[in-house]
Design a protein that fits this description.
The protein contains 28 helices and 15 strands. By secondary structure, it is an alpha+beta fold. A hairpin with a 4-residue loop joins β2 and β3. The longest helix has 30 residues.
């Protein structure tokens, strides 16, 4: 193409200085524009002196050659963008070979690119599903391969180097270059992940431990949390490499027992991944009083740390003392919002005797206290709004007067804005319809009484009794047994039991609402001047001239096979309060029906009881 462009330059159609740039573009076949992005050159028109280029959203775009030379940059054929444009399917097949594909991407951008840049090039065109899993596998392979340097920080670039460096040499170089104990701890974490791939793990561990020990001494008073983290990393590396302890090195117990150490603030500054290890080391260092210290600090730590406190106390047989401390904070309304957040998240059958309306009162107090102290974010408030079941569960067994008091407290609380407050009040009304009038100030159709026969009412009461006395307790036992199997994430028995718990609690709520609205009737001596519950109605269909008989009874008495219908059905609602001779209309199964009432009789009288 160079000769063609030179002819165009000689003819004055393009400038001579553009020949080299245009030749590179034509030979590459692909290009980039600063605004339109990647493009594929489809044709070169030497008659009209223009390229035809496919850009995203601009297919078949014509560009003057001179303008192209000034505004386009050639993309080599081995560049990842060009490979995708020329043969995307081949690149997708290459994704199975993680290192080969990563190498192509890095070489396309000068030998290095950040993880975000790599992701933007490959997703979703090349890797459409589960990028995270693919990238984790790629990182593991790169760390083992001597040609790649994988940084500890996500914002730093992954680098490809022609000269191979062993994993051990690279990690030791990074450790020696790390500035500060915190940075060295991060490198040790990488060493632990790849310990089996180090060519001489004993020599590596000895060098690292020898360097960490003086740093730990230097940090143990000024930054004890960092010193503890380094001790944990050092001990894990020693165990993994199988090297013996060094004499007179600082231990975790020495950190905990030194003067001036405050347990709560110190453990909060340790990374969450090390919380369990830190608490175990504190327990070992303080065998006589560790549980008292944990319970004393419980109200001053984050929800995540409260979970670790609870786990350690419960697994060591301190459940009773732990519940005593928790109940005290709740009943005295001194519980922090973080402690209550953990409790709300982790609520289970172990704490069934504490869970109740007082927990929500304590939550309101804690959130109001946070608001007074001008804490901008409140994770407890957000959780209460997100968890649709929380309010219903906390008030499930409460007396109605207690629930009314709680409703008033919620209405007066300044914690929630009007919309959120209405949402929470609606949940209370759904669980306890009796508070509807307290919320709205008037009775609604939804909470109006249901007329039911005494027989059907007793049947529903028996169903409710079996639910709360047999089915729900049996389900709680199933949950407790399933929890003992461990690892709740993969525990299918536990998940199934929890799902059944949701179903049973929903049934309980529905029956609560229904029984609260139910009004028992015997339907004796019903008036027959108009149609109403307790009457037998004979009516003629005005289209087919067929005569039908309906017995209209309570809301739960429907028995269509015997002509008995509820007074809430469309047929009954269409006839209610109408007299003999009236023509009524109603819709049934999508069709409009017209009937004339011929006769109204009482279903049951005291003198002649119905079967």
């Amino acid at each position: 193409m160079k000769a063609e462009f030179e002819k165009l330059a000689a003819a004055g159609k393009i400038e001579g200085r553009h020949v080299a740039a245009l030749t590179q573009l034509a030979e590459a076949g692909c290009c980039t524009h600063r605004s339109w992005g990647f493009g594929r050159i489809k044709t070169v028109d030497t008659v009209f002196a223009r390229f035809t280029i496919d850009f995203p959203g601009k297919p078949g775009h014509a560009m003057d050659l001179s303008f192209s030379a000034e505004s386009l940059k050639p993309v080599p054929k081995d560049h990842i963008l060009a490979r995708k444009a020329m043969d995307l399917e081949a690149v997708r097949h290459l994704a199975a070979h993680h290192l080969d594909l990563i190498k192509i991407v890095l070489n396309s951008y000068g030998g290095k690119a950040t993880p975000d840049q790599i992701q933007s090039v490959l997703v979703p065109d090349v890797i459409a599903d589960d990028w995270k899993k693919w990238w984790e596998t790629a990182k593991r392979e790169m760390k083992k391969n001597g040609h790649f340097i994988v940084p500890l920080k996500k914002t730093e670039p992954v680098v490809y180097q022609v000269k191979e460096t062993s994993l051990q040499d690279r990690l030791l170089a990074e450790f020696r270059a790390a500035k500060g104990l915190k940075a060295r701890i991060l490198v040790v974490a990488e060493m632990l992940k790849g310990i089996s791939d180090l060519k001489d793990k004993v020599a590596t561990a000895n060098e690292v431990i020898a360097a960490l020990n003086p740093d730990i001494v230097a940090y143990q008073r000024t930054q004890p949390s960092v010193a503890l983290e380094a001790i944990f990393s050092r001990d894990e590396l020693r165990e993994a490499a199988g090297v013996p302890p060094v004499a007179d090195e600082v231990s975790a117990a020495q950190i905990w027992l030194q003067d001036g150490v405050k347990f709560g603030p110190l453990v909060e500054t340790i990374p969450a991944a090390k919380h369990r290890r830190a608490l175990e080391s504190f327990k070992t260092a303080n065998p006589e009083r560790w549980d008292d210290v944990l319970r004393g600090a419980l109200n001053f730590v984050s929800a995540k740390l409260a979970k670790e406190f609870a786990s350690l106390l419960i697994t060591n047989g301190k459940l009773g003392l732990f519940k005593e401390t928790l109940a005290k904070h709740i009943n005295q309304h001194t519980a922090s919002s973080e402690l209550l957040l953990w409790f709300a998240r982790e609520r289970n059958e172990d704490f069934v005797d504490i869970l109740g309306p007082e927990v929500f009162r304590a939550m309101l107090t804690a959130m109001e206290r946070d608001q007074f102290n001008e804490r901008r974010s409140n994770r407890l408030r957000d959780f209460i709004l997100e968890d649709q079941q929380l309010l219903g569960e906390l008030t499930a067994s409460a007396d109605i007067e207690v629930i009314k008091d709680l409703t008033r407290a919620l209405k007066l609380s300044p914690v929630f804005d009007d919309m959120d407050k209405r949402s929470l009040l609606a949940r209370l009304v759904k669980a306890h319809p009796a508070v509807q009038s307290l919320v709205s100030g008037e009775q609604t159709k939804q909470e109006a009484g249901l007329l039911v026969s005494w027989t059907s009412l007793e049947r529903r009461r028996a169903e409710y009794q079996e639910l709360v006395e047999k089915k729900i307790p049996a389900n709680s036992k199933e949950i407790a047994i399933a929890r003992s199997y461990g690892d709740l994430r993969e525990n299918h028995e536990y998940k199934a039991a929890k799902e059944m718990q949701k179903i049973l609690m929903r049934q309980k709520e529905d029956l609560d609402v229904a029984l609260n609205r139910a009004r028992g009737q015997d339907f004796v001596n019903a008036k027959t001047d108009v149609v109403g519950p307790g009457t037998i109605v004979k009516a003629t269909d005005l289209v087919s001239n067929q005569v039908e008989t309906f017995t209209i009874l309570g809301a739960w008495d429907s028995d269509p096979d015997h002509g008995i219908i509820s007074y809430l059905t469309p047929i009954a609602m269409g006839m209610l309060n109408h007299k003999v001779g009236d023509v009524v209309e109603y819709e049934l199964h999508g069709q409009q029906r017209r009937q004339r009432i011929e006769k109204i009789d009482a279903w049951k009288t005291e003198a002649a009881p119905a079967a």
